[in-house]
User: Which sequence fits this backbone?
């Protein structure tokens, strides 16, 4: 049962300096881990400076997925890419806090557009500093 | 041994097996469906679904999988969704420790049980060494 789910990969799209990932399925643990390494590989391959992860469809983020997201943000930071989580549903945000899961180092934005602006601003600031 | 709350008037909604990561996903989706059917609000739906997801992962990682019973009925005169997770794993050695924030015995990070407890209205646990663990959680409508 659910074999097709096992083979499904979450697509990663590159636009300019950024990678865009839209999670459209309720991920089982292995798929979440797979996505994490997929994104890191893509950062390495493309030299992307930022990653936008849209979770607006996710009706639930439990401790495993939460840890996967924050772990990925720290790993991406080491690879000089910023991660912004976009579109978290209010019920998901409330539940995450009650669960006791803090996501240090994870930036969030209300929607894709704001997330994109956030990343662009960050890139400009970096250029300025250089 | 601690007894779990039970009531013969509860209505059984379903019994599901959890033997794979895919089962974790499909059972938590079913829990949301049941919560929705009861007209639970969106935040409470999310709370119970997330709590169940934590319990199922524990059950799968440490208890070798198990069974989930879903019931509905009156608890303290309130319409309640009752989810019971039963495994026949090694049991939890130190319940008090397992229920404390920040404790982990391996693959987890210690949010599992105490985190799940915070998300529901009632949380009951029974564990016996080499026999298994049963966790029953309840969420009022």
Assistant:
């Amino acid at each position: 049962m659910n074999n097709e789910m096992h083979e499904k990969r979450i697509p990663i799209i590159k636009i300019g300096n950024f990678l865009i990932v839209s999670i459209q399925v309720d991920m089982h643990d292995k798929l979440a881990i797979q996505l994490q390494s997929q994104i890191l590989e893509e950062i390495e391959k493309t030299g992307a400076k930022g990653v936008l992860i849209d979770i607006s469809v996710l009706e639930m983020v439990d401790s495993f997925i939460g840890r996967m997201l924050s772990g990925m943000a720290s790993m991406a930071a080491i690879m000089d890419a910023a991660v912004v989580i976009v579109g978290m549903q209010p019920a998901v945000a409330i539940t995450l806090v009650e669960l006791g899961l803090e996501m240090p180092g994870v930036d969030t934005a209300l929607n894709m557009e704001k997330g994109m602006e956030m990343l662009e601003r960050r890139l400009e600031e970096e250029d300025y500093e250089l | 041994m601690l007894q779990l709350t039970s009531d013969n008037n509860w209505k059984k909604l379903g019994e599901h097996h959890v033997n794979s990561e895919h089962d974790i996903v499909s059972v938590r989706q079913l829990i949301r469906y049941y919560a929705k059917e009861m007209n639970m609000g969106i935040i409470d739906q999310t709370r119970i679904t997330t709590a169940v997801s934590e319990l199922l992962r524990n059950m799968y990682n440490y208890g070798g999988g198990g069974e989930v019973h879903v019931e509905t009925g009156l608890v303290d005169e309130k319409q309640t969704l009752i989810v019971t997770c039963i495994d026949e794993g090694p049991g939890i050695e130190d319940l008090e420790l397992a229920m404390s924030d920040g404790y982990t015995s391996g693959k987890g990070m210690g949010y599992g049980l105490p985190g799940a407890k915070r998300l529901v209205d009632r949380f009951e646990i029974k564990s016996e060494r080499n026999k298994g663990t049963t966790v029953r959680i309840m969420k009022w409508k």
